[in-house]
Amino acid sequence: MLHRTELLRIFCCAAESASFREAANRLGISPQAVTRAVQELEAQFGEPLFHRSTRQVRITAFGEQLAAEARPALGSVEQLFQRHSREQRQDLAGSVRITAPHSLGRNVLVPLLAPLLREYPQIKLDLRLSELIADSVDERIDIGVRIGFVRDRSYIARVIAPIRLQVVAAPALLQQHGMPDNVQALQDLPLSALVDHNTGRIWPWYFADQQQFVPGQPAFTTDDQESECAAALAGLCVAQLPDYLVTEHLASGRLQAVLGDAAPEPFELFIYRPQRGPVAARVRLVYDHLFQQLGAALSAL
């Protein structure tokens, strides 16, 4: 049984056509479907809508009155759906501002977001790469991606994937200086140091059983993990880096893992958004896309 609105739509098309077959062709249905719809309406109203003969079909006076009343009602329904569709499209248009670390933004986030942005060209990406924890209100951040944990309860956060830290070095450097057999022996090697943008201090190196140390006299200091990785590849230093930066280089042999048994518990990569008011459809779309795709991309490494 068809919905009453659909019955009326078929009937109005039949009322404007020379025959049920012509109406069927216009609607893309069979003539029998037109006949059944008209018969069902006639049964509901208790009135004939068409005079039928073997040669022609002619609308009745009641049918003309019903068609005149039904057309504006059907038009209102169509306008309702069109307006809702326009509002949905408008809600999927506009800027989405994302903050993320440099090491994730260039090589990971942009490739993952590109297919979505091609599908929804009205969404404009505003990607801010920084190691600083941005104030979501002051900097109008819609979505953030960070490694560690969320300190601010005003954010809604979801863990995407574990991030493992690995100590790595170029094989030539290890041949020159020797392979360390414990954490303390690392201090005798040329080490890298990563500056924490939030404090200006050097990030400590983390190890199992909550061991950590800060490189005392680093051979290479930077505030950018991709540069730190490049320095390790060049044989300048031993570095502790996240797995998404080094997995490819370990597989190719350009880097070698050091002290794998002393690796710390993984950190968490999480995605967050401010907890304020309703979430625009475009923001929710990008948020859900990143949550799904970023987790899948990192798990494939």
Automatic annotation (TrEMBL):
<dbReference type="GO" id="GO:0043565">
    <property type="term" value="F:sequence-specific DNA binding"/>
</dbReference>
<dbReference type="InterPro" id="IPR036388">
    <property type="entry name" value="WH-like_DNA-bd_sf"/>
</dbReference>
<feature type="domain" description="HTH lysR-type">
    <location>
        <begin position="3"/>
        <end position="60"/>
    </location>
</feature>
<protein>
    <submittedName>
        <fullName>LysR family transcriptional regulator</fullName>
    </submittedName>
</protein>
<dbReference type="GO" id="GO:0006351">
    <property type="term" value="P:DNA-templated transcription"/>
</dbReference>
<keyword id="KW-0805">Transcription regulation</keyword>
<keyword id="KW-0238">DNA-binding</keyword>
<comment type="similarity">
    <text>Belongs to the LysR transcriptional regulatory family.</text>
</comment>
<dbReference type="InterPro" id="IPR036390">
    <property type="entry name" value="WH_DNA-bd_sf"/>
</dbReference>
<keyword id="KW-0804">Transcription</keyword>
<dbReference type="InterPro" id="IPR000847">
    <property type="entry name" value="LysR_HTH_N"/>
</dbReference>
<dbReference type="InterPro" id="IPR005119">
    <property type="entry name" value="LysR_subst-bd"/>
</dbReference>
<dbReference type="InterPro" id="IPR058163">
    <property type="entry name" value="LysR-type_TF_proteobact-type"/>
</dbReference>
<dbReference type="Pfam" id="PF03466">
    <property type="entry name" value="LysR_substrate"/>
</dbReference>
<dbReference type="Pfam" id="PF00126">
    <property type="entry name" value="HTH_1"/>
</dbReference>
<dbReference type="GO" id="GO:0003700">
    <property type="term" value="F:DNA-binding transcription factor activity"/>
</dbReference>
